[in-house]
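Changelog-adjacent note: as of this version, every example in the card shows the full chain rather than a window. The one below runs 193 residues end to end.
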Amino acid sequence: MYAIVDIAGKQFKVEKDRFVYAPSVAGETGASVEFDRVLLIEDDNGVEVGTPTVSGARVAGTILEHGRGDKVIVFKKKRRKGYKKKQGHRQGYSKIMIDDILLAGQKAAKKPKKEEPKAEAAPAETPAQDDLKKINGVGPAFEKALNEHGIHTYQQIIDLSAEEIEKLAEEVDGVTVEMVQDDWIPQAKELNA
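Full-length structure tokens:
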């Protein structure tokens, strides 16, 4: 079964489950479109020619993508007048997948719905964060490093064990055990109070 359909002033021979490159059609990618200017339909019953269109017939399709064709050079010149004009042009097109060719009174078959991915559970709310940059010696870089290690509050700095402090000093450049024990923890206690 095929049909001759008029799309934006041009005639195309279309078949089900085939795609056609037609002049730009309004709509977003994935949108469904219908063309009702069907000029001819050929099926098992024979050929039906429209006058000028087949009444009630239409073609349903889906826009796969929009694009632009190859560049065409338009060059104009008038001899002995010094007039030359060179211009390029790329014609827009739409790639349309033909879903169904419908006769009068037929309805388009419903497509099975694609399963939408389930929305992930909302991430747990992050605990209130303290401004760790208020501690002398902690700048934006150290604050980012502490956040990456799960330290967001003054209380977490106060609760650091000796092993955690050593691990932090090994993994973060510029941080020493003495810096954390002698400077950061006392200041965190003051700020937390």
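Structural remarks: The mean pLDDT is 83.
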